[in-house]
Amino acid sequence: MLRVETQQTDNALIYRLEGRFKGDGAEQVRLLITRSESKLELILDLTEAMFVDAVGEDVLLFVKKLGGKFIAETAYSQDICERLQLPVFRNHGQSAQFIGNKGGTGPILSHGSRHS
To answer: How many C-beta neighbours within 10 Å does residue 112 have?
Structure first.
């Protein structure tokens, strides 16, 4: 199962991924990002990602090509960023600001079943 939340701050558009970033769910995230015509900095928070398949990796590399940055605060998410050479957003004080910033929305995508 994949859950995606989005939040907009004054200077960034943040997508938080939770669960399994794979297949159709990953492709739907690519569409969401492609359709957002924002001039804001693009940030994907991979901290709660439990699994990323080849399709998910392709989407992460696509986001990298768009100039996106990544938050990775677990060993698994850090390994993904290192292996794919993804630019990691390192300003942890600012990432804490994102969490408390109003203007975010709830889940924008929930994909899969309980058995995914």
So the answer is: 15
Contact yes or no for 65/32 (Cβ under 8 A): no
The pLDDT assigned to 109 comes to 52
d(CA 67, CA 37): 14
Average pLDDT, the chain: 84
Token pair, residue 12, equals 């960034």
56 Cβ partners below 8 Å, 6+ apart? 21, 22, 23, 26
Residue 11 DSSP class? S
Q: Which residue has the tokens 């004054």?
A: 10
2-107: CATH architecture? 2-Layer Sandwich (3.30)
What's the rounded Cα separation, in Å, for the pair 97 and 20?
Answer: 26
Spatial CA neighbour of 29 closest among 11, 10, 6: 6
60-108 pLDDT, tens digit per residue, is 999 999 999 999 999 999 999 999 999 998 765 444 444 444 445 444 4
